[in-house]
Design brief:
The longest helix has 14 residues, at about 10-25. This protein is an alpha/beta fold. The strands form three sheets. The chain has a seven-stranded mixed β-sheet with strand order 10-9-8-11-12-14-13, with helices on both faces. A four-stranded antiparallel β-sheet has the order 2-3-1-4. A three-stranded mixed β-sheet has the order 5-6-7. The termini are far apart. The protein has two domains: about 5-90, Alpha-Beta Plaits (2-Layer Sandwich); about 105-290, Rossmann fold (3-Layer(aba) Sandwich). It is globular, with a radius of gyration of 19 Å. α4 packs parallel to α5. It has helices at about 10-25, 55-65, 85-90, 135-145, 165-175, 185-195, 215-220, 230-235, 240-245, 260-270, and strands spanning about 5-10, 35, 45-50, 75-80, 95-100, 100-105, 120, 155-160, 175-180, 205, 220-230, 245-255, 275-280, 285-290. The chain is built from ten helices and 14 strands.
């Protein structure tokens, strides 16, 4: 079955609201939702949803059903024959993303990184994590801050997507990172991105569902775990992650809205982790937890 891009056009506030509704509606289906100013600095915003295994009529119906009465009268649908078409459409509106020491960009912006930045080239593909979603940016900001003051020896990136966060860790400290995802396509993309960005020897990729893989157990205990997933899966992973941690380990949790934070934090506090600090952007948050600290 084909893949479709469903596009809505609105002002900034409306686009933000519609994107939030669609993200919540498609949390379990895994349909990517992006919100961009198109073209940059124009004041016009688009919300794109990638709907897999649907023809254009079905894809539009899925989005309209999710939005209900909020669905606009006009909705544009483009049939994407393959991942290359998605990349081409995405690159029209994606700008480089500077976060701390990192400069995340697509191939169309190669060579534009500031002299002292850690450039990471990630193109939009059939995996999550190009730096354009707030959840990825807050994770990058947390990694930048943490690795500026502490060295880690055994990092784990759960739900690696494009491999961006694992690549960022490897670039800053030149250490082995285990990067896993439940999606074999994402793992293939992450492997290719790590090699292209010059850290292939440091990033080990693996298809795994959560913490349930022998290789994950073999590399325990972890002193840094990054999980940019979703609130409900993060809560289910609280105990398995906690059991795999070294003393004084750090855990970065993201993929959660600010409203999700209290219940996610509660799940990890019951496993002996405490909140150290947090980062927010738009409606999204990253929680930075530590094992073995006093309650926060």
């Amino acid at each position: 079955m084909p893949t479709c891009q469903v596009r809505l056009t609105a002002d900034r506030a409306t686009a933000k609201r519609l994107a939030t509704v669609l993200e919540e509606a498609f949390e379990w289906e895994g349909y990517p939702v992006t919100r961009e100013e198109t073209p940059p600095y124009s004041g016009h915003w688009t919300v794109d949803t990638i709907v897999f295994d649907s023809d254009p009529h079905e894809a539009e119906a899925v989005v309209r059903e999710a939005l209900g009465a909020d669905a606009p009268e006009e909705i544009a649908v483009a049939l994407l024959d393959d991942a290359t078409n998605w990349v081409a459409l995405s690159e029209e509106i994606r700008k480089p993303i500077p976060v701390g020491r990192f400069f995340v960009h697509g191939s169309h912006d190669r060579g534009r990184a500031p002299q002292n930045a850690r450039a990471i080239e990630i193109d939009a593909e059939l995996a999550f994590g190009t730096g354009h979603h707030a959840t990825t940016r807050v994770c990058l900001a947390a990694i930048d801050r943490l690795l500026a003051t502490r060295r880690y020896a055994r990092p784990l990136d759960l739900g690696t997507g494009t491999g961006l966060l694992a690549i960022a860790i490897a670039k800053l400290q030149g250490i082995k990172v285990l990067a896993t995802d439940v999606d074999p396509v994402a793992v293939t993309i992450a492997r290719r991105n790590a090699d292209f960005n010059g850290v292939g020897r440091f990033v080990e990729t693996l298809v795994a569902n959560g913490m349930a893989h022998r290789r994950i157990s073999e590399r325990e205990p972890y002193d840094l775990v990054v999980a940019n997933i979703l609130a409900r899966p993060l809560m289910k992973l609280a105990r398995p992650i906690a059991l795999a941690l070294a003393p004084k380990a750090t855990v970065i949790l993201s993929g959660l809205r600010i409203s999700d934070a209290p219940r996610v934090l509660s799940a990890y506090r019951t496993q002996g982790l405490s909140l150290s600090w947090s980062i927010t952007e738009d409606d999204w948050m990253a929680l930075i937890l530590e094992k073995g600290r006093g309650r926060a």
